[in-house]
Amino acid sequence: MKHSARVRFAPSPTGHLHIGNARTAILNWLFARHVGGTFILRIEDTDPERSKSEYVNRIYEDLNWLGIQWDEGPDTEGEFGPYRQSMRFELYQRYANKLREEGKAYNCYCTPEELEQMRKDAVREGRQVTYNRKCLHLSDAEEQELIHAGRKPAVRFKVPEGQVEFEDVVKGTISFDVENIGDFVIMRAEGIPTYNFACVVDDSLMQISHVIRGDDHVSNTPRQILLTQALGMDVPLYAHIPMILGADRMRLSKRHGATSVDEYRAKGYIPEALINFLSLLSWSSQSGDEILSVDRLIKEFDFSRISKSAAVFNVEKLDWMNGQYIREMDVEKLTQLAIPFFDKAGYETTDYEKTKKIVAALQDKIDYLEQIIDQAKIFFQDHITIDETDARAVIRKDTSQKVFWSFLRELRNIDRIDVDIFRNIMKSVQKETGIMGRDLWMPIRVALTGKVHGPELPVVIELFGKDKCQRLVENIVGGYR
RNA sequence: GGCGCGUUCGUCUAGCGGUUAGGACGCCGGCCUCUCACGCCGGUAGCACGGGUUCGAGUCCCGUACGCGCUACCA
Predict the structure, then answer these.
(1) Mean pLDDT (whole number) for A237-261
(2) N vs C: which end of chain A shows fewer Cβ within 10 Å?
(3) Is residue A183 part of a domain?
(4) From the CB of residue A217, how many other CB atoms can be counted at a distance below 10 Å?
(5) Is the CB of A59 less than 7 A from some atom of nucleic acid strand B?
C-alpha cells in the first residue's frame, strides 16, 4: 500500500507536445496536486528511430509554458532516476535476464521476415496471429547454431495462461482472455527494450501508484500487468482517459490543423485557457461552470467525473473560452502579451502608454492575440485606402461632405482632442448640419480608418490626435477619388 | 480476422429508474449601439437500433450496427 500518490507523464520526444499528450499531462498533474502527490516527468526515448534528444527541450518548454511543474524528472533531483529511458538500458537488460533465468522469458531468433510470413500464413488459414512459440523450446545446440549463423536474439515474454482482469479507475472492470495475447518481445535484438517492458520496469521501480494515460493503452494493460506480476512487483491502479479526436472523429492529427501546444502558444492563446479547455474534454465540474481556474480544477478534480467516451477537439469553443480569458485579463498583462505580436507585425511599440490604450480598445474584439495584428492595423498606417464597397458608399453620400466640412471647422477651434472634446464636436456638427446617427459618425470613421467597422470612434480619435484626424479628413474632403 | 473500449443536440457535456432530457460552444432572431465586437434576452437541435427487466427506462441486462484502439524487435 502506497502512502502517497505518485503519477507520471511519459512522453516520447518526437517533437512539440501534442494536444492529446498535453491533456494527459494536465490530468496527471491535476490529480497529483489534488491529492498532494508527486508528479513525475519521464522521457520515453527508447526508439532511436523516432526520438530526438533536442525534442526533450521542446517538451520542457511546452510544459513550462502551460505552467505545469514536475516534481521529479530528468532535470531534477530524485531518488528514482534517471528519468530518461535511454539512460536506463542496463536496468531493462538486468530485469530481462532475470525473467529469462526464471523461465518467464526466452530468446527468440526469428527474423522480422520470418515473423511476417508466419503472420500471413496465420491470417490466410484463419488462425490467431499470435506468435507460435517456435523458439520457446530450442535446445542449446539449436541455439548455438543460430548464434553461429549470425542471428541475434530478441527476448520474448512467455505469456502465462488465464484471465487478466483489472479495475480501471475511469472505465470500470476490464478483462482479457490471455490466449489472445501472444508471447511478445520485451527486448529487441539490439538490446533495446520495447515500450511495454520499459514502461513496466520504470513504473514499478519509480513506484508509480496511478497510471493515467490515453485509452489507446487499454489493450496494452494486460501485457503490462502480466509483466509486472512476473517481475514480482506491485500492480499500479490504471486510469484510462478518453482520446481526443478531430472533427472527422479520427485521431487528432496534423490534418486537423494546429495539434501541438506550441502552435497555440504562437497564435497567442492563454495557457490557463488551454488548460481549462482541455480539462473540460471528457471531464466536467459538478457545478456546471465552464470557466475554471487552475486552482478550481485542482480542487475539483475527480476521476468519477471523467466520461468514458472520446471527445472531439472543437476549436471554436476554445476560441470562445480564450476570448473569455482575454476579456478578464488585466490590460497591463494583456499589453505585455500583445507586444511581441505588434513587433512581429512591425508596429511601433516604443510609446508604451499608447500601446496599452490600443490594446484596451481591442481587448474585447479578439479571441487570441494573433488577431490583434489585423485589428490594430488602423493605428499604424499614415495613409488610408478605401477599398471596401460599403466604405466607398459612405464617402459618396452628400451628407458626408457636409459632415467633413463642419468637422474641419470645429477642429480649428481646438488645439488638442480627446474622447470628451470629440463628443462635443460631434454634438456641434450634428447641430450645425442636422445630420445624426449613422450618417454623422460613419463618414468620420471611414475617413480615419478606411473601414466601416472598428473600435469605438472616440477612442480612435484620441489615439490619433488632432493633427492626424485633421489631415485624414482634409484628404478626403471634396470626394475621395 | 481476433480481442478490447465506446455510442445523449453539429460539437463539449449534465443525467447515476419517475426530468417539459439541463448547461456551454456554434448557428438563427432581438436588445444595446456610429460600425463590428463585447454584453444581455430568446430560439434551433439530441438519448444509434432491436429485444428484455420493471408499474415505469437516456439511466439496468442482452444482442445488432457503427466508431475508435490494440493485435510491431513503435510509443
Answers:
(1) 90
(2) N
(3) yes
(4) 16
(5) no
